[in-house]
């Protein structure tokens, strides 16, 4: 009797490593005369089936069904779950077919896998992973031995017999990957290209990035921002001769790497945060290894490219691959070693199998946006493609999708009830518009002291995601269902603004408010405009009552924010006059040359080069404006010595002006707010120009020059008002300037004692020990307790 095997996957008709792995597995098993039923979670058509069967030469013993048919398919001996998000189906299958063997194929990086209820330990008989090291790691996490290392099939890879000797390796680089920064880190590859092209002058280097996914927007933005339009290309025809590049944070195998090597192409690879790629490809002479240090990696690439790829080296690599990566009778060995292994689990759970299947089916369909479905149906028609480029049509479909979600009780707006987790930390800075300020530096301190805690960070877009991933934190799209769920489960919430009203606050949660600056201008309850004051108070007051802790930099700071926020009405609030962690960073790194070098690489893609940067940091105005100042910045920069450059730091509410200010002059820089940390810009800059922004008070810690440019001082005072007279208290005088006057003020070397006065009076508790003081309080009052509650 032939074995009948059910394989469950997301979309075998799509692209990507998992889809290719599933096709290969089907082809291997069909050679063993198995009857195979593939259950697809995504919708598909008969045309999709015909195309796949024809393209991959599949036999008649292979059939395709939708996932919601899985409980009506009797007689299947074994089910293979090929995606971690499908593992919960094991309970439905065990409940319905208790004698079937259930295999869970783990394709996610093991080091980052969270063994929770959805991992379905109680119903999965065997877990299959790719390598021996990952198998041992998963065994330790599970506390069980039912993990089998068995590599995926590479039967589709074509290997050339020999290569032509080359004087050097190709200077074209190629990435073929899903556009997903969660694991792929293609943003690093683009940053590496910037350094190679801009600093190392490797202008002949070209990078081709091909694939699909939402990350395409991020990559286009970075290419434009870095000035790499002549060197980095997305979804162009790939070159025939290239060096393969992979900067992925994690891969379980890397099909595209093996495919490139099979064609005689060399490869430059990051081993992965878990080292899996080094385990697979570490003995090959055709491969060089990256470290995620831009300077070191650039040198590695240049040296590797200059060395010829010899045919004898390639032949040695192919022998190694054929010996270690290719299984001759793959299908038979998979059956014997995995499916027929002795590991079994008896499932005793009383579950609603139909409900589980329906929830999985609808949740996976929900991942396909309305716009994505429209595109999928019409992308073969060139007239249709022209229509779908319409921004109005795209915005309309997004609105429709949003309305559909609101009408669905299981959509993003529903709150998932879970117990509070002591190991969950929720971080949000500027409502997810960037990752900076006190929340960032508190998150880094928690990570250092408590490496096993899971730190989640609110993010409004992919650029913010990119910054969050750099620190190995987990981004959450602001306001999403996942955001709400994690927020509700987090023991500690750290914010520098107000939390979203819809997430509420649970008993047992701690909200640490850091606010985002020392106030000069009046706020909320102290506003001059009575109507605006009442409007802001009504919205602000209930949010303030959620706060448990508030950080302050001095008694003056406490005095002003107590008045502005009516803090005396929150009887449970503890005000911590211990100073701001963001300024601990400033004080610790003010003369740190290695940090200065890192910042030059981050913002300019170059090494320290003798430039002097002026930071222009105006606060925002409630009315929308097209210019930050009456000054002609292009004229001003032309009057300054050639080594002077201007950085325009926009307020998050005026980020729409970035394109204008980024294109005025090559010596004027305006970065995406989403990837900018103003504390870092303080360290880079020689001089700060601001108006009413709290930036001047933080910047005073650097002991560098501050210029107060106030062109609407009288009007601003009438509409907003001040807590104190800046000139009387600090000696800093706000005034308007002509371009020539401002240039003289920038170059003028004399400085008053305003920095010392600001630091000693207004920011007196900011010290290099402020972060440690806060961590002592959190360790004592937050992390040593565990409480449960309901959301």
UniProtKB/TrEMBL annotation:
Domain of life: Bacteria
Spans traversing the lipid bilayer: none
Keyword Cell membrane: yes
Annotated Glycosyl transferase family domain residues: 163-312
Keyword Lipoprotein recorded: no
InterPro entries attached to this UniProt entry: Glycerophosphate_synth, Glyco_trans_1, TagF_C, TagF_N, Teichoic_Acid_Biosynth
Subcellular location: Cell membrane
GO CC annotation terms, alphabetical: plasma membrane
Pfam families, per database record: Glycos_transf_1 (PF00534), Glyphos_transf (PF04464)
GO molecular function, one term: glycosyltransferase activity
One record GO biological process: teichoic acid biosynthetic process
Keywords: Cell membrane, Membrane, Teichoic acid biosynthesis, Transferase
Membrane topology per record: Peripheral membrane protein
Assigned protein family: Belongs to the CDP-glycerol glycerophosphotransferase family.
Name of the protein in its database record: Glycosyl transferase family 1
Organism: Enterococcus saigonensis
């Amino acid at each position: 009797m032939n074995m009948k095997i059910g394989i469950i996957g997301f979309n075998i008709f799509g692209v990507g490593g998992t889809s290719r792995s599933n096709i290969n597995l089907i082809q291997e098993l069909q050679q063993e005369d198995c009857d195979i039923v593939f259950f697809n979670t995504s919708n598909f058509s008969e045309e999709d089936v015909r195309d796949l069967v024809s393209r991959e030469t599949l036999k008649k013993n292979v059939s395709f069904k939708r996932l919601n048919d899985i409980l009506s398919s009797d007689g299947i001996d074994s089910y293979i779950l090929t995606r971690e998000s499908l593992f919960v189906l094991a309970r439905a299958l065990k409940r319905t077919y208790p004698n079937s063997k259930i295999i869970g194929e783990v394709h996610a990086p093991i080091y980052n896998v969270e063994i929770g209820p959805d991992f379905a330990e109680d119903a999965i008989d065997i877990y299959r992973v790719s390598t021996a090291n990952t198998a041992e790691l998963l065994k330790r996490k599970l506390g069980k031995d039912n993990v089998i290392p068995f590599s995926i099939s590479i039967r589709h890879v074509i290997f050339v017999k020999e290569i032509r000797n080359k004087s050097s390796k190709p200077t074209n680089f190629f990435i073929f990957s899903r556009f997903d920064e969660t694991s792929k880190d293609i943003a690093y590859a683009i940053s590496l290209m910037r350094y190679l092209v801009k600093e190392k002058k490797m202008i002949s280097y070209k990078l081709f990035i091909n694939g699909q996914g939402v990350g395409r927007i991020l990559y286009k933005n970075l290419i434009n921002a870095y000035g790499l339009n002549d060197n980095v290309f997305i979804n162009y025809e790939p070159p025939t001769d290239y060096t393969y590049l992979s900067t992925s944070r994690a891969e379980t195998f890397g099909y595209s790497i093996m495919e490139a090597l099979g064609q005689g192409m060399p490869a430059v690879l990051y081993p992965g945060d878990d080292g899996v790629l080094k385990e697979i490809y570490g003995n090959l002479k055709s491969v060089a290894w990256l470290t995620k240090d831009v300077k070191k990696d650039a040198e590695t690439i240049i040296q590797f490219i200059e060395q010829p790829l010899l045919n004898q080296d390639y032949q040695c690599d192919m022998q190694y691959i054929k010996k270690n990566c290719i299984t001759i009778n793959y299908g038979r060995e998979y059956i014997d070693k995995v499916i027929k292994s002795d590991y079994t689990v008896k499932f005793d759970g009383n579950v609603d199998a139909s409900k589980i299947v329906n929830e999985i089916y609808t949740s996976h369909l929900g991942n396909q946006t309305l716009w994505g479905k429209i595109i999928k149906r019409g992308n073969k028609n060139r007239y249709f493609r022209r229509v779908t480029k319409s921004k109005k049509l795209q915005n309309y479909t997004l609105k429709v999708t949003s309305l559909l979600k609101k009408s669905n009780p299981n959509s993003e707006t529903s709150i998932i009830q879970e117990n509070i987790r002591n190991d969950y930390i929720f971080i949000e800075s500027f409502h997810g518009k960037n990752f900076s300020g006190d929340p960032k530096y508190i998150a880094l301190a928690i990570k250092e002291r408590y490496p096993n805690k899971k730190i989640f960070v609110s993010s409004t877009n992919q650029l913010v995601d990119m910054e969050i991933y750099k620190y190995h934190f987990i981004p959450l799209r602001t306001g999403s269902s996942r955001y709400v769920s994690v927020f509700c489960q987090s023991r500690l919430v750290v914010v520098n603004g107000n939390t979203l009203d819809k997430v509420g606050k649970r008993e047992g949660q701690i909200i640490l408010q850091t606010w985002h600056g020392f106030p000069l201008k009046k706020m909320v309850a102290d506003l001059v405009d009575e109507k605006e004051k009442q409007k802001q108070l009504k919205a602000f007051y209930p949010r303030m009552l959620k706060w448990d802790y508030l950080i302050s930099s001095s008694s003056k700071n406490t005095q002003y924010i107590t008045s502005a926020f009516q803090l005396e009405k929150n009887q449970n609030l503890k005000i911590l006059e211990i100073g701001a962690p963001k300024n601990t960073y400033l004080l610790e790194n003010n003369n740190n040359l290695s940090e200065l070098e890192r910042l030059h690489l981050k913002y300019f893609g170059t090494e320290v080069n003798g430039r002097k940067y002026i930071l222009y940091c105006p606060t925002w105005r409630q009315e929308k404006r097209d210019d930050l100042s009456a000054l002609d910045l292009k004229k001003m920069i032309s009057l300054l010595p050639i080594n002077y450059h201007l950085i325009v730091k926009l307020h998050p509410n005026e980020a729409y002006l970035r394109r204008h200010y980024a294109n005025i002059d090559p010596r004027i820089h305006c970065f995406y707010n989403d990837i900018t940390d103003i504390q870092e810009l303080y360290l880079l800059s020689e001089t700060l120009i601001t108006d009413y922004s709290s930036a001047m008070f933080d910047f005073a810690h650097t002991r560098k020059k501050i210029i107060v440019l106030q062109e609407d001082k009288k009007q601003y005072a009438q509409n907003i008002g001040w807590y104190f007279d800046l000139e009387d208290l600090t000696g800093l005088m706000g005034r308007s300037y002509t371009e020539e006057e401002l240039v003289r003020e920038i170059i003028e070397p004399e400085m008053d004692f305003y920095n010392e006065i600001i630091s000693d009076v207004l920011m007196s508790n900011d010290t290099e020990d402020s972060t440690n003081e806060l961590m002592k309080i959190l360790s004592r009052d937050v992390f040593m307790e565990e409480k449960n509650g309901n959301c």
